[in-house]
Amino acid sequence: MKRNDNIIKFHKQIQINIGLIIFGIIFIYVLFHIFSYMTSDNITVYEVQEGTIAQNYIYQALAIRQEQVVNADSSGDIFYYASNLDQVGVKSNIYSIDTSGEITKQLKSHATDTTALTDNDMSRLQKQIGDFVYDYDSNQFQKVYSFKSDLSSNLQQYYSNSLMSEIAPQIEQATQEGKFSIYTAPTSGVVVYQTDGYEGLTLDQVTSESFDTGNLSVTNLKTQESVEAGKPAYKLITSDDWNMIMPIDEDLVKIIQDEKMEYIEIRFAADNATTWAACSITEKAGDYYLVLSLDDSVARYGDSRFIPIELLLNEESGLKIPNSAIVEKEFFTVPKAYFFMGNDSDSSGLMVRDKKGDSQFVAPTIYYETDDYYYIDSEDVKKDTVILKPDSQETYTIGSETASLQGVYNINKGYAVFKQINILYQNEDYAIISTGTTYGLSLYDHIVLQGDLVKENQIIR
């Protein structure tokens, strides 16, 4: 058979899929960045803010006051005219005793007549309710009952004031018949309708057992509808001068004595009010006690025997940063005498001599300064570099002297720059640092939250 030599064979052309190649490149790019993200440290940024830190010295202080328990002169139904913690003058109406119960019944029944309330009465009630709502704590539900009692008593008092004038003839007749008597305060003071068994306790009598709240025997006198002669009717705080005492440890004793403190600022937990108190330390049976002496606020907390307070001993304000951002970095310290202004530079720098003996001007970054030294790092001038002193033959070798600084990494420009800080006060989580320092931080600067995760000049994405 004859061969067909005219057949021409064509090689199969390779078809290149551009779309597939592009997809592959993108896929590899995405995988690379996912891998980089998963294996690299996650840098968190923190914005510098102003703040305050106060060391926590929180205590349950035992209140010692000049208190007088006033007993009822006779038996019968009792009705109160003064509100709890009211400041009253001598001969002010405090309570009445009704042996028949008729006058007291009329006074209490008038409590349903809301038209008897004046605008001033309404304002006082609104404030009382608002204060309770603001300070409400679900863990102290027993205070709800005290609030209910105080609110009802105050309403009763406001209503009774207007009724007294309406039933003046009946009151006068009952008084003449010896069935009704109004009793006044024997002296001026703060009225308290509560006893706890600690009345009469003095500073000299306080022991460690005095701070056991289980020893309190609290009685709310205003809930009683009748009283027997000789039984407590109310209590008077007869002086604005009072004391608080609390056990303290030796560390606090040392702080107070070393600082020679005569007065301490305190904050009351009940309403965040602050005041100053004279302070003294006493020792009993090997235990130390802090005594705070005050001449104000006695009425505000007059019905509390144990008062939660905070001693404001170490309160500092400034720029507040987390401790996790703080790092320590070592620097070369160079005498200031070796720095000068370059001919073509606005920056202060050094005359550096290289190994060939040639000299050139270098302006390193200055991180901090003292009276005699500038602090620089190894970015611009390496260790063992020799520098020349202006207008002198003296030389200095970089690295001869070093020192460490505390600081943080500022990333305002997108890369890490060390900034020196001056710590004013520090607790377990945060530090308060000085503001307005030459080489330090400013308000709203951005810093690395975990300072040990970055290095100088590291780019932050």
TrEMBL record:
RND related barrel-sandwich hybrid domain boundaries:
67-237
The answer to whether keyword Transmembrane helix applies is yes
Q: Which InterPro entries match?
A: BSH_RND-rel (IPR058709)
List residues traversing the bilayer.
Answer: 20-38
Q: Which UniProt keywords apply?
A: Membrane, Transmembrane, Transmembrane helix
Q: Name it.
A: RND related barrel-sandwich hybrid domain-containing protein
* Organism, scientific name: Roseburia lenta
